[in-house]
Design goal:
single chain, 141 residues, eight-stranded antiparallel sheet, 1 helix, 16% helix, 39% strand, globular
Length: 141
């Protein structure tokens, strides 16, 4: 496969995920829930910011948030291992006052990566977490 074909395949896959997210953003999917977490304001975030996260059996995370503060960049969703603070991004939260449906990596260990985090990120070409967490919650289920 050429580099161009691989890049095109990646773009098409991303657009398909984004399209599926858009179509489902008006309502939460009706599926069995493996784990869930209430999300509360974290750090200096206004206390009325909140949300909830649900992990479905099909390997997706449904996120609902409300009252996030305006940020100059964008919002990103992470899973964190609270034991060693390792984390990885699940994707960008495009609607800071609504819903998102994000795919999980197929082999994610939800026992280890049990904290859901929503952060404020800058457009700075740095893929690491900014350190500016807005919401957090621990998955149970």
């Amino acid at each position: 496969m050429t580099a161009t074909a691989a890049a095109l395949l990646g773009v098409v896959g991303t657009l398909a995920v984004l399209d599926a997210t858009d179509r489902g953003s008006d309502r939460a999917p009706q599926q069995a829930v493996l784990a869930s977490a209430p999300l509360a304001a974290y750090g200096r975030t206004p206390k009325d910011a909140n949300g909830d996260a649900r992990i479905f059996t099909d390997g997706r995370l449904h996120l609902h948030v409300a009252n996030l503060p305006d940020v100059p960049g964008y919002y990103e969703v992470w899973l964190i291992n609270p034991t060693n603070m390792e984390m990885f991004s699940l994707g960008v939260l495009r609607d800071p006052s609504g819903d998102a449906l994000l795919p999980l990596p197929p082999n994610v260990d939800l026992q280890a990566y049990s904290v859901v985090d929503v952060s404020a990120e800058q457009y700075d070409n740095k893929p690491a977490h900014s350190g500016d967490s807005l919401l957090r919650g621990t998955l149970t289920g």
